[in-house]
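Sanity check. The docking grid for copper (II) ion depends on where the pocket ends up, so I'm generating a full predicted complex first rather than guessing from homology. Inputs follow.
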Amino acid sequence: MAIRHYVLLATDGFIELPLEPDVCTDTRREVYVFGFVGGLYKVDKEVIHPSLNWQDPNNWPSLQAMKGNTTIPSPLIWGEVKDRIYVTLINLGMNKRLDLKDFHTIHMHGAHVATQLDGFPETSFGVPIWSMLPPDQVPDYAPPVATYYFEPDHPGTYFYHCHIEASEHVQMGMYGALIIYPSKKSLKMAGINQNEKGEWFLHGERQPQIPKTATNRNFSYNDINTYFDSDWVMLLSDIDETWHNAVLTADPNFNAVNYKPNFWLVNGRAFPDTLLPHPLTAPPTADQNLTQINYESYVHVKTGDKFLLRMMNLGYQVVPWHIHGWHFTVVGKDTHVSPFLKITAILGEDCDENLELHEIQNQSFTVTIGSGESYDLLLVADDKRPQYQKYILKGQDGFPSLCSQMTELKIFATAHPELVDQSPIFDIPTEPVNCPSPNTVNYVNICAGIQGEDNFFSQFYPAHNHDDYKVTNDGTYPGGQLILMQIDAPLQDNGRFVSYRG
Ligand SMILES: [Cu+2]
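Predicted complex below; grid placement will be based on this.
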């Protein structure tokens, strides 16, 4: 059990959304947003970010300087079952809308806290603004604060948002992810434990499929079948630019019932920005024990990896989220393990031998995620080589190899510039995508063995909103709610697969 203390500061700012698919585009639209800045202040008695100590007057200038500097989404909050999670809220006020005297709150969505702590202001309270001073002038008194408290019983994918005038403040961007991992104790109570050698057991039976390097933070629930090598937050939201501009200009004529979004976001960004390193990710030198998880949305794993997509919808539209490459298993919804997994666990050894595990799991290739819902999707990056490598590299059944077919297409296009306006062989930005000159590969390169190890890898798969007009930025395709997943060749040694985490 740890005491994790976060400090969040509410204010306004701008984001810059891409308007064209070029991965390093400078053609962008500035959109006014509200949000929270700050982050993890303390774990137990250890101070992580001393600058977040609002009681120290020496910190007031830097705290006040955050006014007007928010982005979206808000800082990621995480902990384990039965941790004591405290979130102190400071209301910096707005930089662009100095006339706005709005309170703010923290509502932890899905957290069964007492109503005093629920952040629904109509049944509790709001936190007033520290001062109306601009960012470079510092108040000579401490900010008024309130500290929210949550003791989670259930692991899973939660989120939080401000609940003041929720229609507007949520649309403006006041939301972030809240992730709860099982604790060693909660796993143990479900019969899952690890011995001193690192070996995992379920009710005393050895579980060789779980690597020794795994910890309690490699499970999404207190269930052996929810093990993952890596987990990824996919926070979905949508933006009606007209509404944001109306808030910026204090235009009273916008009516929320006319909501009509023109941008669709994953972790606060639209494709192609979803491929770029996330600005809120801690540097690689940061203590992984403190950072644990981030908002990166370029999923990068190895063949054979199990990976978890933590889907959550903070937008106002239903998202049919579709994944290429594999079916996913819905291992949880709204912070509760899938009843199918529960049945699997109960059946255990009594399970009919003719019944394959996947037949009693909830597997899909599209999941419909309404506003306020979360889903935990577990994928296994199964190896495609047994079925497809021969055809792609060598050809079969009288068909030439796909590699040679792609080469022919490229030769044809080069010989006929009047017929094509770009290469038919698409360049794929590889992770990490560095701007302004990203590394790319394409499948003619890969066929030629440019990656050295194996001319079948890497594999690249998309996942996207299947309302495909939402895979645009204000109508320009591709954009919006689209991510890429890069799947590398499996590791050849006997060590566990080490998944990339940004
Ligand atoms: Cu608010």
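Relevant for the grid: Residues 3-188 form a domain with the Immunoglobulin-like fold (CATH 2.60.40.420).
Also worth noting: Residues 102, 104, 162, 164, 169, 174 surround copper (II) ion (CB under 6 Å).
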